[in-house]
Each structure stands twice: as structure tokens, then as C-alpha cells.
Design goal:
The chain is about 75% helix and about 0% strand. It has helices spanning about 1-20, 25-40, 45-55, 55-80, 85-95, 100-120, 125-145, 150-165, 170-180, 190-215, 240-255, 260-275, 290-300, 305-310, 310-320, 320-335, 340-350, 355-370, 375-385, 395-405, 410-435. The chain has 21 helices and no strands. It is globular and about 65 Å long. With about 450 residues, it is mainly alpha-helical.
């Protein structure tokens, strides 16, 4: 039964990934996959569902839900008021002074990464801010005459950068403390910044080389069916210095005052609301308060629900007969291979499970690898670096939405994404395993 259950789990994971790539929404894909695991593992659906609802993951969603809710609302204020545009234009300004085309391109890409890092430090939801960031990218790529298929790669690399950030109120800094005893937002901060720097410079260099090679062939920017979103630099919006205030306030409250992430984000959102509300355009016949309330209601409400449902398959796996086989296999790997190598291999392979990977991988870390001697620092860094390897598969909802917004079909835009966020991060994962094996991390 355990072997059959394991085969069916693999089928369910393939189904979830492929169906999302073909357009099925994440909630339905995860629910169907979870029910399939229940049925083929001999688990009563009602019992399995109740087990998921009573689990630690569902309990912690009480913390996660307001985090994503306020992240979405904060993103709305930055996007709708023009604050993100002001910040983006200010960050990108130094690149305009550079005359050398190659140098200008390199600096522009680095500045895009910096912009994405600033937004991540405040916990601003990436989906909420996507239209503004894409509008900035369109203006820059048009000016530099860069083929637009590289646009998704640049934006996605910026997202990968944010995954390495210590101290930011989001991502691994929120989920891992709940699953790995002893993990804090500052855990392995030096290692994370080290790999952040490697990815930043290596990806910029590689992308620049690919782009210049295509430009030498005569390729350039073509708008296509993409909606041109002009950046009006004289538009009435907050000064860029004002846009930094919430970005500074939130990390300070989160780190210096040890405030819960959701509360720090809520206070930062309130600050942004006071500062940016008057810059939001109001439709004729509507009141300002009613308009802002409607926008808040629509911002980020579904994100926490989607996140919750994405963990369901992992919870089903941990109560299936196949889980004993998974534990036995992980134990065999921990015995036969160096701990860092064994855990690193699992960290990469299991990422194809999506968010469910975190459930299974932290369980294996707590029950097998850390008791065997692998340090919390090594486990944390291997999980963080490993999570960047397959997080940009074509089934990523964020990636799909971005490709549609930029009118850049997956077959056209994915090759540079694959090279930078899968091949490059795979090489970084090998380096992380080696450093863990020799005791540096």
C-alpha cells in the first residue's frame, strides 16, 4: 500500500504542476491533488481534511493571513498613489547619466534589483505592485532597445534576490520560525547575503551577455500587443523620499522592536494610508473614502487563502502510508551520504512540490538530519538556496501572470529565466552544499 501511495503522490504532484501550467487555478489544482492523495492512500476524506484544519500550518495561518492582507493593501497604496513609480524613477535615475550602452544596461539591472529589494524589505506583496514594476520595465527596455523577452527574466531575478533577504517580514523569515525551532529572521544572515551577492552579479553579467548577443543580431524592443503604460514624470504623486518612510518604519518595528510581522506591516500600511491616500485618483461621482475602502477590500484578500490551500498536498503526504517510505529513504540518504549533501539533494528535489515542500522538508530536518548533526544554520541556508532552484518553473502563478501582462509567451520569455533562476541557482546550491560539508555554513 505504501508503494502504491507513493506512486500516486508523484502522480498528484505532476498533475498539480501540469494543470496549473495549462491554466487551472492553484486552489482547484491543490484541492483535487489533495483529494486524490487521500483516496489513493486509503485516507477518509473527511478525516484527512479535519487533520489539515487541526494542523500547525492551519493554526499559523491566523498569523499569515493578516500578513498577506496588509502586504496587499500596502502594495495597493504604493501602486495606486504613484508612490512606487516615484521610488522606481528615483532609483533608476543614476543609470540615465551613463553613456556606455553596456554599462548603462548593467547599472539599470542592478538598480531594478535594488528597487525590488526595497519593496521586499517592507513586505509589499509582489502581485499588488506588479503593474507598476512592469510599467517601469517597459519604459527602460524601450529606451535601451532590449528584446522584451528578457523583461520577465529581469523582474523574476529581482524576486529571487528578495528570497535571500534576512530581516524582511516575509517569505522564509515568516514560515520557517514556525517549523524550525530556533530559526529567526537573522539566522544565517551572512550566508544569505553572500549568496544574494553571487546571484546579483552573476545574473546581471549573464543577462547582459545574452542581450548584447541578440542586439548584435539586430534584435530590439518591440511593443507587440503589450499595453504601453506611459510614465508621466510630471504626474502628481508622492516625493520619492516620502515613499521610503513605510519601507524604513516596517523593518525597524519588525527587527529592532521585535514586533510581530503582521503588526509591523499593519502599522506601516496605516502610515502609507495617511501619506498616500490623497494621491489616489478618484472616479467621478465617487467619494475618496468609499473608493479607498473598495480598493482595500480587493487588495490581497485572496492571497492568504491561496497560500493556505497550497500547503494541503504536503499535509496529506505527512499522514499517508507513503510517508514512512519517505522517512526511510531520507534516513538512508542521511546515513549513506554527508548530511549536507543528502539534505541538499532533498531540498532541490522536493521543491517541485511547491509550498508543500516546506512541510515535508522541515519535518525531515527536525526528525532526521538535525538530530544526526546537521546544524540549524546549514539546514536553513540549504532550504533557502534550494527553494530558489525550482521556484520559477513554468507553473508559477506569479510567472504566468507576469508573462500575460508583458505579452511575452512562456516559450519566448522562459529560456533566460531558466538560465538565471534555475541553472545559476542550481550551481549556487552545489556551492552551498560544499560550504555546509566543510563546516563554513
Amino acid at each position: 500500500m505504501a508503494v502504491f501511495s507513493l506512486i500516486c503522490i508523484i502522480i498528484a504532484i505532476v498533475f498539480i504542476n501540469y494543470s496549473m501550467y495549462r491554466g487551472l487555478g492553484l486552489p482547484l489544482a491543490c484541492i483535487i491533488g489533495t483529494i486524490f492523495i487521500y483516496i489513493t492512500s486509503g485516507i477518509d476524506i473527511a478525516t484527512g481534511w479535519q487533520n489539515a484544519m487541526d494542523s500547525q500550518i492551519m493554526n499559523m495561518m491566523a498569523t499569515y493571513a493578516p500578513l498577506f492582507l496588509f502586504g496587499g493593501i500596502l502594495g495597493m497604496f504604493y501602486s495606486e498613489s504613484g508612490a512606487a513609480t516615484s521610488l522606481g524613477l528615483a532609483v533608476l535615475t543614476p543609470a540615465k547619466k551613463i553613456k556606455n550602452p553596456a554599462g548603462k544596461m548593467i547599472v539599470t539591472f542592478i538598480l531594478f534589483y535594488i528597487l525590488r529589494t526595497l519593496l521586499s524589505l517592507a513586505g509589499i506583496d509582489g502581485m499588488a505592485i506588479m503593474p507598476t514594476v512592469c510599467a517601469l520595465a517597459i519604459a527602460v527596455f524601450k529606451e535601451l532597445d532590449i528584446p522584451k523577452r528578457y523583461m520577465s527574466a529581469i523582474l523574476q531575478c529581482g524576486g529571487t534576490i528578495s528570497m535571500f533577504l534576512p530581516w524582511a517580514p516575509g517569505g522564509a523569515n515568516i514560515i520557517l520560525p514556525m517549523l524550525l525551532p530556533g530559526f529567526t529572521p537573522s539566522t544565517t544572515w551572512a550566508g544569505r547575503l553572500f549568496f544574494l551577492a553571487i546571484f546579483l552579479f552573476a545574473s546581471v553579467f549573464w543577462l547582459t551577455q545574452m542581450i548584447r548577443k541578440d542586439q548584435a543580431k539586430g534584435e530590439g524592443f518591440i511593443m507587440g500587443k503589450m499595453r504601453n503604460i506611459p510614465i508621466n514624470e510630471s504626474e502628481h504623486r508622492p516625493h520619492w523620499l516620502l515613499t521610503l518612510i513605510p519601507i524604513i518604519v516596517i523593518p525597524i518595528l519588525y527587527n529592532a522592536f521585535s514586533m510581530p510581522a503582521w503588526l509591523a506591516l499593519a502599522i506601516g500600511t496605516a502610515v502609507a494610508a495617511v501619506m498616500f491616500s490623497r494621491y489616489i485618483s478618484i472616479p467621478e461621482g465617487r467619494g475618496r473614502l468609499a473608493t479607498i475602502v473598495d480598493k482595500c477590500n480587493n487588495a490581497g484578500v485572496m492571497i492568504s487563502v491561496l497560500l493556505t490551500l497550497s500547503y494541503l498536498p504536503g499535509l496529506a503526504i505527512t499522514i499517508s502510508p507513503a510517508y514512512d517510505l519517505i522517512l526511510a529513504g531520507a534516513n538512508a540518504i542521511a546515513t549513506a551520504l554527508p548530511l549536507s549533501l543528502g539534505f541538499g539533494i532533498l531540498a532541490v528535489i522536493l521543491v517541485v512540490m511547491g509550498n508543500s515542500c516546506t512541510i515535508v522538508l522541515t519535518s525531515l530536518a527536525n526528525s532526521i538530519f538535525m538530530p544526526a548533526g546537521l546544524s540549524l544554520t546549514s539546514v536553513s541556508l540549504l532550504m533557502i538556496v534550494g527553494n530558489t532552484v525550482f521556484d520559477t518553473l513554468p507553473n508559477s502563478p506569479f510567472l504566468v501572470a507576469q508573462a500575460e501582462l508583458l505579452d511575452s509567451p512562456m516559450p519566448e520569455s522562459y529560456p533566460p529565466i531558466f538560465k538565471t533562476t534555475i541553472l545559476l541557482t542550481s550551481a549556487m546550491m552545489v556551492l552551498a552544499i560544499i560550504l555546509a560539508a566543510v563546516g563554513i555554513i
